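Input record (Table S2, row 636):
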Amino acid sequence: MALLQISEPGESPAPHQRKLAVGIDLGTTNSLVATVRSSVPEVLLDESGRALLPSAVRYFSDRQPIVGHDALGAQAEDPSNTIVSVKRFMGRTTEEARASGSAYDFVDAPGVGTPGTETSGAGASGTVRLRTAHGDLTPVEVSSHILARLRSRAEAALGDELVGAVITVPAYFDDAQRQATRDAARLAGLNVLRLLNEPTAAAIAYGLENAAEGVYAVYDLGGGTFDVSILRLTKGVFEVVATGGDTALGGDDFDALIAQRVTEAVAGSAGWSRHDRRALLVAARAARERLSDADETLVSFQLQDGTAVDVPLTRGQFETMAAPLIERTLDCARRALRDANLQPADVRGVVMVGGATRTPVVRRAVGELFGQPPLTDLDPDQVVALGAALQANLLAGNRMAGEDWLLLDVIPLSLGLETMGGLVERIIPRNSTIPVARAQEFTTFKDGQGAMSIHVVQGERELVSACRSLARFELRGIPPMVAGAARIRVTFQVDADGLLGVTAREQTTGVEASVTVKPSYGLSDDDITRMLADSIDQADADARARMLREQQVEARQLVESVRAALAVDGDLLDDGERAHVDEALARADSVRDGDDLEQVRAAVSALSEATDAFAARRMDRSIRKALSGRKLDELS
Ligand code: ADP
Ligand code: MG
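Output record (magnesium ion complex):
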């Protein structure tokens, strides 16, 4: 996740010294490879002149796998041996892959696989494998076949071996997914110079091309995922100020809606085979892409038994179906802006990335949100690969004079501590630039408390139970002190690689305890998406839950203190006043643990009003008591 790279200005090396480095966009749907030639980034084409390599691999029992267009064409014919969208399973367990509802044959036991291809992360227990005619394969192996194809394309185009590659990953990829991507590249014989976040790559391509300055948004709608990032570009510094997105939202989801409509429209669709359903999805996608230019089209395909299916679809119908999905992307964008403390009008330009941003209604909706037409002058399919190529060129040492820039990245989820009542105290908010360190002081709540347990959590919710627990540790050996006297400073530190360290130190004695945790380890990007989505849905509910708990605590304390005061100074009230206080007290006591925030709040305020005069008289009495029997000179 981490990206902190400071480059020094340098001279442009002579052409014969140039080291060949490439940028690779390893996409869910399509992959590309690009390089920098004569200071200009360009995408490398295959022997037929095509830039996009579909991220599809078809496996056989007796021959080498085929990758790309030919594999994609076999999707319906040989669905279980033709793997598409394998990126969705990178770094995932079998359970997670099964839960995704995908139709592949998943196996958990380490299978036959390709001998000698086990690498750390790839063959770890629990890692998903896909059963194919070629054996049981991990997503890492499938991805490596795609990468190997891009590598040979690049070597053919450049005429030499590569020194290394920058490979892009979604900003939301966790450690396991990033590690899996690295492993795939290693398997493909590539030296990984760096993993680079896709939106950052897009901003680099756009920003360097246009000498852009100011705040830019990158809106990336691909085949299977949606990502939005807000970046600040100043004098060659690319600072990511906020990221957001949805790892389960992309062109595929639009296709699923179209497919749904077709199955509802055609009699007998319940009996369609796996082949038929896959053919329908392929047809839905083709129809949707045509609707970017045409006003109407046919979703047409053939069933396995030869029957032709043709269902008309207009652009208007598609746009109505797509509206809720597009709205979800806009919500993510608004949220990222809020996190960055920015208004849509602060954004100088919106860079469109991903094939699905060719959809006119998507462009319109994004244009309306930001009050300006989005930037589409760079090919949305290529922009990520071009940015990766620029970064690769720099890391390989081919930097030209004046080409120095800096990347800063952020943490995707907030980090905090559990406090009393199961509430979360946020220490480092989501989207803080890394590396980052923050400290906060806590104290003991019991007299003579000798230890304090520290529970580190990650997530956006107010309640610990709704966040992910990262680590627990204890600070022991706190010397006996009265409650509230100890000063325990807890420091959170996230380094440039995204690793979190937590230290707790009692300030007066110097007693210390610490723990290192990997914040995103084992957190799938679905987890992240779900946690973020929940926090949006639940923000109101959470705020109410917090207020209710606070009110309940206040009600309890007030009831206790009024009771104690009545026992001591009850004589200060006449019968009428006493009845009034008793009534308010009984009311507060009966509702104080209830779930109705308004009721608790009303009872608390009624009780404090009813006891206002009583409190004032008690104050008078205690002052008189304190003064009585003293001489005047003692008081001066
Ligand atoms: P990924 O990043 O997931 O590899 P891409 O950026 O390659 O994805 O985008 C693939 C998606 O773009 C697919 O869903 C595809 O249908 C969609 N797409 C490609 N061309 C068009 C088009 N002309 N109109 C609408 N969608 C398109
Ligand atoms: Mg992409």
